[in-house]
Amino acid sequence: MIGKYKLTRFYCFLSAFFLVSGFLASAQGKTLALAPKIPTGECITVNGRPIYLEQFGKGRPLVLLHGGLATIQSSFNRQIIAFSKHHHVIAIEQTGHGHTPDTDSPFSYRQMADDTVGVLHVLKVRDADIVGWSDGGILALLIALHHPTLVHRLVVSGANTELVGMDLEESKKIQESSAKELAQDTSPVEKEAYGRISPDGPEHWPVVVKKAWNLWLTPVVIDKADLSRIQSPVLVVCGDNDVIPLNHTLEIFRSLPKSQLLVLPGTGHDTFNEAAATLNPIILAFLDSP
Q1: Contact call for residues 102 and 208 (beta carbons, < 8 A)
Q2: What is the DSSP letter of 202?
């Protein structure tokens, strides 16, 4: 078993807090004053593959990019109502996540970023704000780097640009672990949520978990020199108890030419759920800044 690795690597779990409060409470018939009912949920074809998205509200485009092995609702259930009051919210689920079916290809940050760009092209969206959590934050930075005309402002929380939080021995053990072993080390609530909404069915869960770990073990995703080329204003967010080391978050912040830093007190990696009351108005104020 590799239980200790969940403490050193950050994307593999959707924390019990937000999954229980979101997915599980909904399943028990409780009413949550969180995200509204989905007005439009659809799959569109980009780069030869279907990508699921949901849209809410009107105004300046605001793209939401979820975390690894997460979904729109598990990542942003506590933001959609607030953000959609004055923004056209476009929330996307990447290949193999949520309602979007998997493919035979491995997960790739660049492919996910290109798929997101493809969605924006189909929707004829330009100059959009992008809010990304964890893996979604990495995608937001990649889009700003390679497609700057699509991006107005960015908010990234819990993002990393290289492998952090584990040593070579730990990384090797994870690489040698089977898909079944890795899947057993995830929360039962994660597995239930995936099996309930994924078109690939619950039996596909170990496959996507293994793909996700292979993605997370990427040594370098974005060079620091490339971060300096991003000219969009960026709000860099982390929890003071985030599993991303604070020093790494500071490196990202200092490498970006037009960046602001927000460290949320008493908060872990799951900033959007743990600190929504504090974070939401700060994000909206940042996005609406001149």
Answers
A1: yes
A2: G
Q: Which residue has the tokens 């909206």?
A: 284
End-to-end alpha carbon distance in the chain: 51
Q: How far apart are CA 260 and CA 281, in angstroms?
A: 15
pTM of the model: 0.87
Q: Which residue pairs, CB below 8 angstroms and at least 24 apart, start in 127-130?
A: 127/60, 127/61, 127/151, 127/152, 128/60, 128/61, 128/62, 128/63, 128/90, 128/152, 129/60, 129/61, 129/62, 129/63, 129/87, 129/153, 129/154, 129/155, 129/287, 130/62, 130/63, 130/65, 130/154, 130/155
Q: Output the six-digit token pair for 13.
A: 């779990």
Topology of domain 5-287, per CATH?
A: Rossmann fold (3.40.50)
- CA distance to 39, 112, 222, 289, per residue, from 279 (Å): 25, 26, 26, 15
For the stretch 123-173, pLDDT in tens is 999 999 999 999 999 999 999 999 999 999 999 999 999 999 888 888 989
| Residues counted in the chain | 290
Domains of the chain, residue spans = 5-287
Q: What's phi and psi for 198, nearest 5 deg?
A: -75, 135
pLDDT tens, position by position, 58-102: 999 999 999 999 999 999 999 999 999 999 999 999 999 999 999
Phi, psi of 269 (to 5 degrees): -70, -30
